[in-house]
Amino acid sequence: MRILFVFAWLAGGEEETELRLLARTLDPHRYRIDAVACRQLDDAADPTHLDLQALGVAVDTTPYTLGFDDTVSFLARKLTGYEIVVSSQSPPDLAPALDRLLHRPPVIEHARSIAELLATPRHLVTRSVGQTEAIQAAAAALMPDRPDRTHFIPAPVDMSAFHLIRRNGIRHEVGLPPDALVIGWHGPQDANLRARHPQARILSLAPTTTEGVIAAPATIPLPDLLCAMDLLVLPTPEDATPHLIASAGAARLPVVVPSGTSTATLDQLMQDRDLRLRLGHAHYAHIAATQAGDVIARQWEALFTEVLSETAAKQPTLFRSFVQGGFEASSQRLGNGRRVDVIAATGHDQHAETDYRQLAGLGLRTVRDGLRWHLVEPQPGRFDLSSFLPMAEASQRSGTQVIWDLMHYGWPEDLDIWSPAFVDRFAALARAAAQAWRETTDAVPFWCPVNEISFFSWGGGDVGYLNPFARGRGFELKVQLARASIAAMHALREVDPRARLVHCEPLISILPNPGLDRPDAEAVAYHQSQYQACDMLTGRMWPQLGGDPSLLDIVGVNYYKNNQWLHGGPPIDVDHPSYRPLSDLMFEVYARYGRPIFVSETGIEDHRRASWFRYVTSEVARARQRGVPVEGICLYPVMNHPGWDDDRNCQNGLLTQHFEGSRRGMDADLAVAVAEAVARWPSSHPVTAASSPRAMIPARRSASRHAPQMKAEPLQDSHGSPTK
């Protein structure tokens, strides 16, 4: 469990003492406690952060070099990496950072005053912890709808810091006789007390110039000073802070607050050593039982456990199965002019029903699959669905739910991807596919308009790896693909308003590189650029494209072993110290968009297939525990396939390309890992085939052999000119 303490500043205050004790007491194998300070005090040369780091608390002082707005942005990114956030000193930067997140980690407010309560917006507080009962009561009044979410946990006291054996040594260091009656004092001086008890020595905890009063050296720690005293006097209630009273108890001191105590009582304490000892020991016993570090740590630990138990996401219900399989559907042109068609190369188009039924038997009743635009539209405006309908029918006969890619890197030969006609013709493709599906079944369709806009625009527009093999035009291609996707989604919903729209994008993490002489902000900017595609679809970025929040229906994240790297460096693997857990990245996505999310692609080649899938499933479970509604994991590709560039047999699937009898072969180790995940998230949907009459399609019918030839109206570009 990762817990982040957010401080307004660090200066050796009471909250930091508490943090020290929690760091010493909580099991480091179960808890990781970090801290961040939002600003540095002008006169602070305080080594608090170094002291905390020595205890294993990572203290982030990045905000020391940032302005307010940048600190808010920094915190909004950082918070997604923690299961729980503890707010101390009501830092003003925290609330706006939390408000930027559509999904937040639970926030425990730790208040040492009512003023801090008033400075924190209540809607951001999951639990409120007051250091006194009065603060808890005030918090309950501010949270009338949930007073049970307020708690009283007093400040902890490190009992091990108080050593009475050092009493005479400290007295000698201060200049006090070993047998003197030493009165500790904190606050305004009382001349009458000195007159009544001239033999007593007064040791002031605050700086003073009063004659006859010794000012405690700032170099001596408070526990040592208290151990040198016989009695502590706190002249006013304002001086009687809970922390100071508790510390006095740890030093076995009776505490007197004259405003609530008669002069006779105070005089009696000063004269009666046995009474002082009895009261001091009773005070010590009370503090040891209620405020010792291990006692307070157990209270905090119970609170952490309770809070985290309430954050889990609801049971997944979006897809027919949580564990899914994806059939590689790439159909792009290579640089040598050859077209890739992985569906045909694996024979999946000829054996779709067999493949679907084999996966269904393993508990994978939802799959990703794809149309091949170059086959569906062999001539401009003429649609031939014969490559799609048999697969659609097979999905219904086998009871398989399919998320259909409309474009997986490929488009017709005659079409210029940079032209306005590309957008119009893609929308027409979407409409034709939606109509064909609607005529085949009444099942709710799931469509992915453009697979991986971000990777597509980088590979095809920036580095010349994918078609159209451009360089330096990545953002331009991203805009074009976003326009096409938006137009297609409107077409899909015009045919069937129930259509679910899935957007599968790479999930990456770009981290600052300490070995590169570049500002951290540059790595942050590159990392944030992964959201440009979805931001365009929602209208957050470039709203003139027609994006709308309703179009970002379901977010798919594609995640592989090379999806994280240090800025300007090579990819890093899970064992790298800077590697971010997948659950944190998924939390970040959900906090940004607040939409249902699933792992739409994940896999790896060769011997790591099973271990990688287990890593992903464990991180998905962790994300769901943190309230991220992850709806599924798609093993992608689910079947081995020829490599794009070299036709090698990519050993990255659960199924093999070859058949063993009536079914394809399987990777035994990965099959076990998949079965474990299926058992962990069993399907809540019926396991029978779709019950709709139109869904009960015979194995062969005329529409499959002679798919409809749809002729669209002449398409026009944005200027009204007919396209070719």
What does this 3D model show about the protein?
- By secondary structure, the protein is of the alpha/beta class.
- The chain is 37% helix and 17% strand.
- It has an eight-stranded parallel β-barrel, surrounded by eight helices. It has a seven-stranded parallel beta sheet with strand order 3-2-1-4-5-6-7.
- Strand 8 (182-185), helix 8 (191-196) and strand 9 (201-204) form a beta-alpha-beta unit.
- It is elongated, with a radius of gyration of 34 Å.
- It starts with a strand and ends in a 13-residue tail after the last strand.
Mean pLDDT: 90
Q: Percentage of helical residues?
A: 25-40%
Low-confidence stretches: 688-724
Shape: elongated
Per DSSP, the total helix count is: 26
Gyration radius over CA: 34 Å
Strand order within the widest beta sheet = 13-14-16-17-18-20-22-23
Beta-strand level of the residues, as a percent range?
15-25%
User: How would a textbook summarize the main sheet?
Assistant: 8 strands, parallel, barrel
What is the distance, rounded to the nearest whole angstrom, between the alpha carbons of the first and last residues? 60 Å
How are the secondary structure elements laid out?
Elements: E1 2-7, H1 14-25, E2 32-37, H2 48-54, E3 58-60, H3 68-78, E4 84-88, H4 94-99, E5 107-111, H5 114-118, E6 127-130, H6 133-142, E7 150-152, H7 167-174, E8 182-185, H8 191-196, E9 201-204, E10 213-215, H9 222-227, E11 231-233, H10 242-250, E12 255-256, H11 263-271, H12 273-290, H13 293-309, E13 323-326, H14 342-345, H15 352-361, E14 366-370, H16 373-376, E15 382-384, H17 389-397, E16 401-407, H18 420-440, E17 446-450, H19 453-461, H20 474-495, E18 500-506, E19 509-511, H21 520-528, H22 532-538, E20 554-559, E21 564-566, H23 582-593, E22 597-602, H24 609-625, E23 630-635, E24 641-642, E25 649-650, E26 655-660, E27 663-666, H25 668-680, H26 702-705, E28 709-711
Parallel strand pairs: 1-2, 1-4, 2-3, 4-5, 5-6, 6-7, 8-9, 8-11, 9-10, 11-12, 13-14, 13-23, 14-16, 16-17, 17-18, 18-20, 19-21, 20-22, 22-23
Antiparallel strand pairs: 15-28, 24-25, 26-27
Helix pairs in contact: 1-13, 10-12, 15-17, 18-20, 19-20, 20-22, 23-24, 24-25
